[in-house]
């Protein structure tokens, strides 16, 4: 299996990680995950290579997010930043837009709203959300796409 899949999976890891050494480490983790979860593979949900590439992509994304979190400066060492105060008019427009977005999100069906909130506010991937809701990844992608389309229509009707 390694000989047949490693080049493709390494390419995915390298593209997401941007670093060869990190991609090699992530690829190692991918094969460890595959080894542990081989029994959970369901051919009804997709081909073996799709399953492997999803694991590789998700693991590489997790690595990337972890690197971003670790790279953040502690507040004590943060450089002086400009005053984030927003002028009154801009603040009112921002509040109105935020209320419109949250109202549109609340108007969605619960499964769509939950998926969009978790994807955009908590950083869950499609695969993580699909697993969490026990649905195929394609269904999760459709929920989010249709939910975002409905939000756009709601915001356009409201004049935002």
UniProtKB/TrEMBL annotation:
Domain RNA polymerase sigma-70 region: 8-69
Domain RNA polymerase sigma factor 70 region 4 type: 105-151
SUPFAM superfamilies to which the protein is assigned, alphabetical: Sigma2 domain of RNA polymerase sigma factors (SSF88946), Sigma3 and sigma4 domains of RNA polymerase sigma factors (SSF88659)
Record keyword Glycoprotein present: no
Highest taxon, organism lineage: Bacteria
Keywords: Sigma factor, Transcription, Transcription regulation
Statement: the UniProt record of this protein carries the keyword Metal-binding: no
Pfam families on file: Sigma70_r2 (PF04542), Sigma70_r4_2 (PF08281)
Entry similarity comment: Belongs to the sigma-70 factor family. ECF subfamily.
The name this protein goes by in its record: Sigma-70 family RNA polymerase sigma factor
